[in-house]
Amino acid sequence: MPTNLYFMGDLRLEELSANNIVAANTLTLKPGQEQFVAPVSHSIAEAYVNPSTAWPRVVLDGDEVVGFIMGNFDPDSPHDEFRGCIWRMNVAATAQGRGIGRFAVTALAEEARSRGFDRLTVMFEPGEDGPEAFFLAVGFEPIGETQFGETIAALTL
């Protein structure tokens, strides 16, 4: 059975719940970043529409919610890039640059491995304040483009 908690130092990943949903929904990004990611509230809605495939988690530093990541695990998806992927990821502006995003991606990758996936994908819009540099730094490599011009990148597990 996949685990629900991952730890690294003071960081931990917990399942999205009534106890942390408000904090997750109010994460504030750096100016310019909001155009590259949908609000957490959209992810929360998607998680409840697709509960069998969605994996929504918050990142806590001590007791403070500092990030949110949602994976999608659907081995039967007709779209290869949606089978094991990062669907959403936000790190609070005040917490960026402290390894929180790397921690969240590593935890999601471990969850994917535990479910039998051999790669993890992510899609992002290119742009100066976008997440491309981050995803490349944690090991993702561009493998294609969506019909909307977003980059599709993959991380071999």
UniProtKB/TrEMBL annotation:
Domain of life: Bacteria
One annotated GO molecular function: acyltransferase activity, transferring groups other than amino-acyl groups
InterPro entries: Acyl_CoA_acyltransferase (IPR016181), GNAT_dom (IPR000182)
Residue ranges occupied by any N-acetyltransferase domain in the UniProt entry: 11-157
Protein name: N-acetyltransferase
Gene that encodes the chain: speG
